[in-house]
Design goal:
heterodimer, A: about 425 residues, alpha/beta, ten-stranded mixed β-sheet, 21 strands, about 40% strand, B: about 500 residues, 24 strands, globular
Chain lengths: ~425, ~500
Amino acid sequence: MNAIRPPSALREGALAFLARYDGLKARLPGDPALRAAAAELFRAGGLPGPREEAWRYTFLRPLVEQEFHEPLVPLADCGPLLARLPAIDAPRLVFVDGRYRGDLSVPPVQAMVTTGAPALGPLARPESEKMVALNTMLAEDGAEIAVPAGVDAGTLLLVSLGTDAHGRAVAFHPRHAVHLAAGARLTLIEICMGEGAYLHNPVLSATIEAGATLTHLRLQDEAKGAFHLSTVYADVAEGGTYDSFALNLGARLARMEVHARLAGPGAAAHLNAAQLLSGNQHGDFTTVVAHDAPNTQSRQTVKNVLTGNARGVFQGKIEVARAAQKTDGYQMNQALLLSPGAEINCKPQLEIYADDVKCSHGATVGELDAAQLFYLRSRGVPEAEARAILVRAFLSEALDPITHEAGRAALEQAVAAWWETQAA
Amino acid sequence: MPAVEETLDTVNAVTGSTYKWGFSTDIEMEMAPKGLNEDIIRLISARKNEPEWLLAWRLSAYAAWLKMEEPEWAMLRHPPIDYQDLHYYAAPKQKAGPKSLDEVDPALLAMYEKLGIPLKERAILAGVQGAGEDEQERPQVAVDAVFDSVSVATTFRATLAKSGVIFCPISEAVQEHPELVRQYLGTVVPAQDNYFAALNSAVFTDGSFVYIPKGVRCPMELSTYFRINARNTGQFERTLIIAEEGSQVSYLEGCTAPQRDENQLHAAVVELVAMDDARIKYSTVQNWYPGDTEGRGGIYNFVTKRGDCRGARSKISWTQVETGSAITWKYPSCILRGDGSVGEFYSVAVTNNHQQADTGTKMIHIGKNTTSTIVSKGISAGHSNNTYRGLVRVRPSAAGARNFTQCDSLLIGNNCGAHTVPYIESRNPTAKLEHEATTSKIDEDQLFYCRQRGLSQEDAVGLIVNGFCKDVLKELPMEFAVEAQKLLAVSLEGSVG
């Protein structure tokens, strides 16, 4: 094998993170050996670059051109940011610049939560993804959420606020873990917002035991100058479900990467998403679904709406192991390009080693249908409204399956607000 | 799943002896010493009596190749290839180029006879006999036969010359039409394009050259038949087809090799150029020796094929039936430069036993209102792996571009793999792209239906597989379609039908 050498800009960017680790390592909480191992991996591998297949469409150059600092003791008034949170009546865990803020949080009753140290979780391994190595090396805090067997823990908000630390861009790498014991249920609503420029590099690992259901709704609405690079691992045991929807909306460069493994018979994963990007934004939604057991099912509906000079990326891989007979995998990726400068790159991928399976994927790319627009216009609907109706209809396939009403309302509102800023 | 089990049993029962083209021919050969260096390249160039510019081109390709690394991104596993352990030139010994078929070594003619390739003019391919009362009206096929490193015979050249069509070995074209070769060679697949193309550019020995003048519709099908015979040789042929404004040509390509235990390397380059309103139809039935049931031997097939739709409304259509080779690495592509140009790719790739195929296409939309269609059918059986890898790219200039892609995979048995890796990139909002892929096994209901009507298991599976591939097979010229259907059945013999 030839070693893949990252471009020099990426090497220098990686060095900045390593320097930070060298300065901080004595003070970081948790197992120092594990961090040192992650740091070694990161030193050897660096940041992921465009010569790697999984990163061919997302280049981290803008990230390395930004200088990041240590998050300061939070002085900023989080009031205005908190006020922007959708009104969902549920307990919440609030992290500011990657650190848990008990004063802003309302812990749940039905689930056990531990904070104050990175919740490493059993799934995310530094050797599997370079961003996870970076996270493991520098993670300072995170939430460990556990729901006991048979308990329905209701809804929990996991909020990340990035603050504008007086023009000093900060980088934070929180590490969360969720564990649902057999038959447990939880709706986790993850909201990322902020101001100014910062890097948010969270890793979340979710273990879903037999018959348990994790509903994971995600609103990525980071500040326009921010970077969001998140990695989620979900392992689903027999009869369990990982039901997720992600709205990729904010940040100048965002990548939401999800690895779901269907480890037990009858396990299911839904990885739906919508990416709404404008201006010079770059958004990337990457998924890997591993069917490792028979009779497992995965569903993915990913919708992209791109305006301005935005670039959207979707990469979705379905892997079916030999043992995973009777797998049912479906993936649909659609993109609407609303301006001449917009760009979409998608790579749906099937890797199948079992014969008795039903796997399919589809992808379409195009602009708004002229005939549909004409239909609405001919019935007296103004142009702008007609376009809004069609875009909303385009997104409905991904949004409609969300059964959590308050969660869906919050996401719908974010979509509506986004469209209004586009129309304005 | 009794039906599948039964199928699997038959897989195990049948051995690799079904490769009917596996014999080798004993012919006195002239071989270059093993190994690759500048001297070998000079030797090849000298043997071909090539002009200085071509030797310089070869040497620069070689220099580039030395700096390149073998690509590793394909889903293919093979032991490292020792490029120094091959003969880069092997040619049947003969006196100063045969002037007619009568001068060709009778052993060679007998071999082609055995392969069913008509080297006698006015001979007619099997399956279409009696198509016309008058001999003149019967479909005729001009054949260029490439044996290891050289072309041994090209038929119907006089008939073709009457309409201005040039069809000859590329080594001869270098001598007789140097201006055309120099103008076009390497303009579609540059010498430094990729590892295997660079290797080919350095050491290519022969191949076919086709030139269709303005407004001419080629009066017959053209075809090249490639045969690797010698042991430890690589075959590096180069094909160049130029279709001038308003012309049309249909070109067929077939390949076989003897059954041997060691792997042999085949790295070809095919370049197509279509000017305004020109049409090129390029069909391949690839049946290199696939190795035995244990995966021993077989051809490593690393091929770069690319068509350049330079003119407005030009059309290039690739159709391939890939049943052979231990390894297939091949992505026939279209660069849709001319406004309104059309690219098509129809493919059936069958892998059985330990074969590996990573094949697909690239459609690069540059001109306005360009359209492309991709239909790919992959069938995997035994312990094989079959990957579709394709790229559809719409550049910002390609307003109104249109693509439709359909990739279907069929798995037979649970020791094989079927993979789909499409890349879809659009930078123009007026472009419309659609992609669909499915993976499934042979439908039990369809099988039951056929069995119930008295078809044997093998016939039933054969029928279903042929139906699965119909969209592609119907694109083949008739003579080839007959051969391809038979080949499909043979390739899957033991596994399906």
